[in-house]
Amino acid sequence: FELHANLPHVMRLALHLEGRQSVVFRDTSDLEAVLNGQKHSRLTRWFRANEKFPSAHCIMFSNFPDKFEWDKSRHEWKERLKGHGTMIGHVYSRVGIGFGF
């Protein structure tokens, strides 16, 4: 039974406190570059999209992937074109891991 062929597609949406998003890097990565690198997550960009797009004001974070697409190269949400598939958001958090919880 193949999971990758199931529809609709599911996008993982992480909940995190401000400045506490997960960072993934290789053990060969330059630590300075990692620390100064990507500062935005899908959640922080969801807040920005709500400022930018009036149509986003009434869409909850978990439902956002159905109406907006995540642009991996620009790390931002853009409005999904009609007829370009559907996607479900799966919200998760890592409560209890790290400081501040």
Summarize, please.
This protein has helices spanning 31-35, 42-52, 64-67, and strands at 9-15, 68-71, 76-79, 87-93. It is an alpha+beta fold.
Describe the main β-sheet briefly: 2 strands, parallel
Q: Which structural category fits the helices and strands?
A: alpha+beta
N-to-C span:
38 Å
**Strand-and-helix sequence, N→C?**
EHHHEEE
> Treating each run of at least 4 consecutive H or I residues as one helix, how many helices?
3
Q: What would you report as the Rg, rounded to the nearest angstrom?
A: 15 Å
Helix content: 10-25%
Strand content: 15-25%
Descriptive keywords:
alpha+beta, two-stranded antiparallel sheet, 3 helices, single chain, 101 residues
Structure in words:
The chain is α+β, with helices and mostly antiparallel strands and 101 residues long. It contains three helices and four strands, in the order βαααβββ. The strands form two sheets. A two-stranded parallel ribbon has the order 1-4. The protein has a two-stranded antiparallel sheet with strand order 2-3.
SSE blueprint:
Elements: E1 9-15, H1 31-35, H2 42-52, H3 64-67, E2 68-71, E3 76-79, E4 87-93
Parallel strand pairs: 1-4
Antiparallel strand pairs: 2-3
